[in-house]
Amino acid sequence: MTPIVAGIAGPVLTAEEADVLARIGPAGIILFARNVADPAQLCALTDSLRDCMGRADLAVLIDQEGGPVARLRPPHWPDFPAAARFAAAYDVAPATAIRAMHAQGQAIGRVLAAAGITMNCAPLLDIGHADTDPALVPRLAGHEPLRVAALGRAMLGGMAGAGVTGIVKHLPGLGRATVDPHHALPIVTAGAETLAIDAQPFRALAHARAGMTAHVVYAAWDAARPATLSPVVIDRVIRGTIGFDGLLVTDDLHMGALSGDLVERAVAAIAAGCDLALCCHATPAGLLALATALPALSTAAHDRLTRAYPVAPASSGDMAASLSHRDAYLAATGAVRLAISGKTD
Fold it and tell me: What is the reported pLDDT for 324?
């Protein structure tokens, strides 16, 4: 098995893609909106991916955070609000907001499991700050470590109960980035004690079965390399201080934050200690080049991948019921807010 999570071009697996995927055996596949048309098509696609590689346990990933980052959208799938909506509810009634987030995670999990998707790149455990990059803000669960950890734990638990593994991100914390790593490399100059605060939600959820790295330079830890490519940050901070021992996946290696070509980035990430290199836009030829340059999946990474594979739920459950519970909890926080303010409808 090759330590790659690969993307594919469209809603149907091409013959060339199937041939290359069968030859290189990537550890997983990630899907985007370009791969999605409707529920029947999506199920057929995930079935074809497993068939072409002969692996019923193939990891199939997607980004379904809710809000601005959601690959499955109406009219074929429900609309899922962003994490910021639950953070606002937490201001009013923390326990109710946590229940709402658990129900949201359960509903997302049921949607993904029905489509043959096993891992979701969510929740974000990044803490918001006054100068956080605006593109990240709606995706965040708040500005306090306790709130972010509590809502993140709820989403993880809801998804797990539906048979989907959550991938916490972005280790060891993206909230202090003032530029978007899709376009440029964020450099965070905060001291180690300050960065330790941002790492608190990740420490609280260090038992998570999978996590994603941040393409950020943390000058206090490694001024020369972003976390994804830094053995210092991965070994000393993520594996050491935070105590995370789950499957460690890079953020997309095609992002503008990183320099060098894709092969150089992937080789450096695996050498630094990442388990899997996320290559969302690699062509079949590019995947062959990656497979040639990268070592086989290590025993430790294989063990983490095996542990990360979700446990199937006892039953498929009722997605509509989960959505109904979520909406009722969110509505209750609105009623509490009105009562506190003294306003009436």
Answer: 96
